[in-house]
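Incident log entry.

Two folding requests arrived from the same account within the same minute. Monitoring flagged them as a possible duplicate submission, but the sequences differ. Recording both here for audit purposes.

Request one:
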Amino acid sequence: MNGPVRVLVAEDQSAVRAGLVLILRSAPGIEVVGEAADGEQAVALARELGPDVVLMDVQMPRLDGVSATRRIIGERLADVLVLTTFDLDAYVFGALRAGAAGFLLKSAEARELIEAVRTVARGEGVVAPAVTRRLIAEFAAGSAREPRADPAVLDGLTRREREVLSCLGAGLSNAGIAERLEMAEATAKTHVSRLLGKLGLRSRVQAAVLAQELGIQPSDR
């Protein structure tokens, strides 16, 4: 992308927020354009400032991070990277369902935070493959109370797109998909973008959850 990655930091704890801002401002190519102390303010500032990425704490006053994420994604204001204390916090499931690009633990190292923001800005998810598989399985196991996906959504996909979807379900990055399906990484990225568009999804993590819900397994090659 041209220019710096513009980031809005939404975190209700002032000390934590200050630390996040300090880390991000120390990184070349990243600009912190605003800070929000609650979900309502996060949505308002996303509308006003037009950031590329919103770093969103899931547990906030006035409007929780899941609801704020849903609004920001629904209005296509920015991509959202959610922050949580626990890697399988129930709030995370809601945020991913709402279209967040992924999640990051608050205990992550500074370099991990910086790389996560850059990765989201490139249009990729930031959940590590091993964690993705565990999270998706956990999500699917506990999603009986949620409407499950309709297999008919796959009818418009090509065979290659179904293969890409299965790779997303396994938590593979674009490079991993390219290696698994023996294609260029740029081609894999194009397939992922087209797939998300066809399925009406905002993030590759949403696609991964869909693959798990529909029982789509990667084929051996």
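Request two (distinct sequence, not a duplicate):
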Amino acid sequence: MKEKLSVQQMIEQNKGKGSKGFIEKLIPTLLLLIASVSVLTTIGILVTLLTETITFFARIPISEFLFEREWKAFSSDPKFGIWALILGTLKVTFIATLFAVPVGLGAALYLSEYASDTVRRIIKPILEILAGIPTIVYGFFALTFVTPLLRSIWPDLGSFNSISPGLVIGVMIIPMIASLSEDAMSSVPQAIREGALGLGSTKLEVALKVVFPAALSGILASIVLAVSRAIGETMIVSLAAGSTPDSSWSLTGSIQTMTGFIVQVATGDATYGTDIYFSIYAVGFTLFLFTLLMNFISQWVTKRFREEY
């Protein structure tokens, strides 16, 4: 009678048998190398940013960078106050978030709680197509359609402003909010919905008072990720927001965001080795800190509001 072997014993017996054993040993190493690519890339980017940013601050006092209200990099009397660029970025991001969150969550609620399977299979891919449209197309859409439309309603609005790119960036991040939030809502067990309905709740009450709170972790994480995407958007603001750093709270005039300034310098407006050239690394490092902060917030939100089923 043959002795019965456990699965672990069978695995041990098969180890080291010819080429199969060699491949089994090679695969983990190969996968580790592949996984290390993203880590090494991040380290390389961070080292580059830090090195060039330190060079910039060796020339320009960090106190001017942090506390100066004006950003006039190309002036004969240059000033490097990052707050003008930060404020321009926050204006556009605020408008985009204000527009995208209600629309995205409304679409997610409909797809999760009200749409039939047929309707969901049609609408969700269409929504996700918006995420695949090149941002340069969104930029020209903002410049040639949205801005003239807004100016026909609001004549005082400038040709370059915060509102038009903000709305278009909002359209761009709607699929991210809608898709991720719908996934979070769909993961709520059906038994919870049926229990609420059995207690006399309406469909709307179940959606807003049961499903929405239960999926709050995923919903908030989707919003934070969408805001991060809006902060880092480049082409839309470069085309439709303008190139005039503005530290006021006006939404109707030309502004410049952090990414917009980087594009302006990177296209050849500054000579290599000048203060302006190194300033793009300081601005890029500031943008990196914003994105890193948003990632930390996303992770905290996910852990803080996670529901276990």
